[in-house]
Design a protein that fits this description.
Order of helices and strands: EHEEEHHEEHHHHHHH
Number of helices: 10
Strand order of the largest sheet: 1-3-2
Shape: globular
Number of strands: 6
């Protein structure tokens, strides 16, 4: 175990706005309750005179955006799927705790030397409580990242787990291909220009369809949740020969039993 902690200093813009600072503190407290192996642990939220800061678990790792840049043609599919699975598990857990990340992007993910995947900055990007957020832009908290933000987030709608799904799908596409599905264009611009993501070589049709649905511009067209996306995207649709043989044998047994049943009734 590391004896180090990481300190995140909060931007100056919060110091003179008590309501904004209180809202941020509430978000940080929610994040403290997250306990998952793929989420960086937040220890405390505090201030020292004019400096407002958060203390959190220190991870000696590489940001995912650096890994994407160092694999311009995409990562090996097995390695990419491992990262996608772990990021997805972190998000599924947070959503089960009623916390939407709202600014999920590659530099909010760290990979350490043991290939552990750690996600951080949950819920800090945006306030889910509109009564607190009043007149200020909900994207102000951490400077919403347009190329990973869903259309609904860009329109200032209430955060939803499917917003994180859109971001996860964009990152998944980058890991496998080396580039953003819509050339880093924001969802509103990509939709206006009718941009479509090109199919990724190496994905079977089921995987591609799962990824394509998760990349849908409209929330209602996206996959229901991240758990279902992972089931569809990570599932191995090719049954190994011994499984097929077992299924065939089982069907023969069922036919024989059914035949025996009817023969017995005829007597």
């Amino acid at each position: 175990n590391s004896s180090f902690i990481a300190i995140k200093v909060i931007n100056d813009q919060y110091k003179n706005d008590p309501d904004l600072l209180k809202a941020l503190h509430n978000e940080a407290r929610k994040t403290q309750s997250l306990a998952h192996p793929n989420i960086i642990t937040v220890y405390d939220f505090d201030r020292d005179h004019d400096t407002v800061f958060m203390t959190m678990e220190f991870i000696d790792g590489v940001p995912l955006d650096h890994i994407i840049k160092s694999n311009p043609n995409g990562m090996p599919i097995k390695k990419a799927l491992h990262i996608v699975s772990k990021m997805g598990q972190a998000l599924i857990y947070a959503h089960s705790q009623h916390l939407v990340h709202s600014d999920f992007k590659p530099n909010n993910v760290l990979i350490n030397s043991s290939n552990q995947v750690k996600v951080f900055d949950f819920g800090i990007a945006r306030l889910t409580n509109k009564s607190i957020s009043r007149s200020f832009d909900p994207g102000v908290l951490a400077g919403l990242t347009p190329s990973y933000a869903s259309l609904e987030m860009l329109n200032g709608e209430t955060p939803d787990p499917r917003d994180d799904l859109y971001a996860l799908a964009c990152i998944t596409y980058e890991l496998l291909s080396g580039h953003h599905p819509f050339n880093k264009k924001s969802a509103d611009v990509a939709r206006k220009n009718n941009l479509k993501a090109n199919k990724i070589e190496g994905l079977n049709s089921n995987q591609w369809n799962a990824l394509k649905q998760a990349l849908a511009f409209n929330r209602s067209d996206r996959t229901e949740d991240i758990s279902l996306f992972l089931q569809q995207f990570l599932a191995d649709k090719k049954k190994p020969p011994y499984v097929l043989a077992a299924l065939f044998s089982l069907s023969i047994v069922i036919i024989i039993l059914a035949y025996s049943h009817f023969k017995t009734e005829d007597v």
